[in-house]
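Check out one such.
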Amino acid sequence: MAEDEADYVVAAYRDADDWEVVELKASLGHDVEELSDALGRLHHQDVLAMVSVNEDYVILLRRVDGRVRVLLSDVTAVSESDLAVDIADLLDLPDPDDEDEPVPGGDLELLADLGVSAADLTDLCADDEVTPDDLLLDLAERIGFVDGLEAVLG
C-alpha cells in the first residue's frame, strides 16, 4: 500500500460567534486517536478536523463534548491506504468490492447541525470531479469559515 501522507490537517471551532481555523501538524493526520486527542487539547466543546490525504480522499473528524464522530470521504481508499483501512475498521465498514464507486462511509450526519445534510455530504464526496481541496473549501463555505480555511491554507 502507498505511504499515507496528510497534505494538511486543520481544525475549526467556534469562539464566541466567530469561527477560528488553525493548522495542526500534518502528522496528526496519520492516526485518528492522536488527532482526536489533539482536538481535545483545544479546549472547545465542538471541534471539527479536516484532513486531506494523498490529494485523494478526506477524513472529517468531529469531537463534540468528548464524543468522536468520523467520516471517510471514499471507502474505496482502503485498497491503497493503511490509514483508510484503520478508519474503516474503526467504523466497522464492509470491505468494498473492486467495482464499487467512491462513496463516503461513517457518520454522514456529522455536519447536519451545521447546515450540511447527509445527502449533500454524500453528493459532494461521491463527485469524482471534486478534489479534496474543493470538497473541504465547499464544506467550509457552507458552514461559515471558508475565509479562515483559505487563510490557513494560503
